[in-house]
Design brief:
Layout lengths: L2 H7 L11 H21 L14 H18 L6 H6 L22 E9 L2 E4 L5 E6 L6 E2 L4 E5 L2 H36 L5 H34 L1 E3 L4 E6 L6 E2 L15 E4 L4 E8 L11 E6 L7 E8 L9 E8 L11 E6 L4
Antiparallel strand pairs: 1-10, 1-14, 2-9, 3-5, 3-8, 4-7, 5-6, 7-9, 10-13, 11-12, 11-14, 12-13
Amino acid sequence: MNNDQLERLRIASDQKRRPRGPVWLIFGGVAVITATVAWFAVPRSSDSIRTGLMSNKEVAKARVDAELKARAAKPDAPAGSAKATGSPATTGTNVPPPSLGRVEGSLLTVSGYIVNRERIEISPRFMGQVKWIGVKKGDAVTNGQVVVLLDTSEYLARLSEVNGQIAAAQVGIERAQLDLRRAEELVRQKVEMGKVLDDARLQVRSAEAQLQQLVGSRQVIETYIDWCTIRSPVNGVVLEKLVDPGELVSPQTFGGTRGPSTSLVAVADPDDLQVEIDLNESDLAKVSLGQKCAVSPEAYPDRKYEGVVAEMAPEASRQKGTLQIKVQIRKPDHFLTPELSAKVDLLPLQ
């Protein structure tokens, strides 16, 4: 290769320099991206809502908090401003929004179940057979009303037998008295010794004692016959009819599931109702005996009844961490059904 060819292959010095414009553009772009990332990464107190870094739930919560803080700073804001922003209106800085159906000014709202203060299950006093039952579930009964009759045939037979024994004892007394008068005459005439008179007197007393014993037996049988007529002890409503005519009943169970029934009917006073509540131990400081309450059945939330804390259990439930209280309902009506749930608002003490 000669010198002319080498000269043609040589690059000129002005062509060896690279243009510096694209390099500066690259550095500038990197700097802009770095600044943007730093701007988003560094937290600021004035930038509490950034939709690019928060979930929808967090964004909504942050907006509500910001609006509540703004209203706390301006407590006299007009009521119409809340509608303009589309959020619920508040009346003060420390007053939470009222819960659905809560009584205004209540200290605590709890739920419980409506119960009868006294549920009476009428049981027989002895084993017997049901002859007649005159009530059914839901019937109204009055104090002293006959609800069940037990079979009395056995006790009527025993009564007839005792009446015969009493008649015989009365004849025995008459005989003993005649013997006594004879003995007195014979002793007066000194025909018999004094021992005969003493024996006659003892015979009379023995006959009288036997008669008294039989009269007592008759009273026992008459009592059993009276117990065969089962009456309601209260004014109320029949909650359950537990037996049918012909069934055998007993005052105590003998074990198993095929034994005789121990109760005839269950009754309760519909005007004596309470709400039974299991109160959390963390809320006990808000409740005291005699505290007024507002009771509302869940089935009829628009109806309100006056109540008062009537009972507080002397012992708590360790497993549940609760204490049972009972609220007495004043002036209940037919809308309150036992075993249904109800809401109780505990009012402040006055």
